[in-house]
Amino acid sequence: MRALVVYESMFGNTAAIARAIADGIEASMHADVVEVSAAPATVPADVTMLIVGGPTHAFSMSWPSTRRDAAGRSASVISRDRGIREWLGALPGVTTPTVATTFDTRATSRLTGSAARAASRRLDRLGFPLVASPMSFRVTDFTGPLVDGELDRAHAWGEALAAEIAVRRPTRPVARSTYQRPFQRPYPHPQSRLGEA
Ligand SMILES: Cc1cc2nc3c(=O)[nH]c(=O)nc-3n(C[C@H](O)[C@H](O)[C@H](O)COP(=O)(O)O)c2cc1C
Fold first, then answer.
1. pTM for the predicted model, two decimal places
2. Distance between CA 113 and CA 131 in Å, rounded?
3. Does residue 19 register a pLDDT over 70?
4. Domains in the chain with CATH codes
5. Fewer CB within 10 A of the end CB, N or C, for the chain?
6. Which residues line the pocket of ligand 1, CB cutoff 6 A?
């Protein structure tokens, strides 16, 4: 039983949030953090919870063109060649008892588009039960830094996610053909500490 956090990041802000989420999860289960270029092509069978995050670019997940734009703003960007859009696009439908959720970083308010919401829709189409609503974390400007308190909030969200799946873990793989949408809407459970983005 472990969590896998897959992140994309240009300037390091989403990477820092990914590590903070994983630190929070580690309070109750093992969590691996992987930059999207190094992420596995399929979700390993022992992954109980998949968490996918990236920066919001042009109201959604990044594109090659927006990553080129980012590269023009900094001499060293992390995920120059591959984003979560491409990784999720190549990911096969779920065949393991893995629940999922998503997060993003962004500079603007929650009323605009969100990489996390787009990624969540993709995971839902692939058949992953969604364990929580997409979560957003704020940066002060395109290159950062993060707004004060966001790393603590990410840590707390990771703790809450791990606590959530401890009470709701599916016990068998769900094939797409028989998938019954057990979590029709991303829950919180009645005792959940999970917040909304
Ligand atoms: C090309 C580009 C487009 C962006 N578009 C948006 C946007 O539509 N909405 C938003 O809130 N932030 C936008 N941003 C800000 C990013 O969300 C911000 O750079 C990101 O959260 C920083 O995280 P990172 O350091 O992990 O890349 C954009 C940034 C870039 C470089």
1. 0.89
2. 21
3. yes
4. 2-178 (3.40.50.360)
5. N
6. 9-14, 55-59, 66, 69-70, 105-108, 112-113, 139, 142, 144
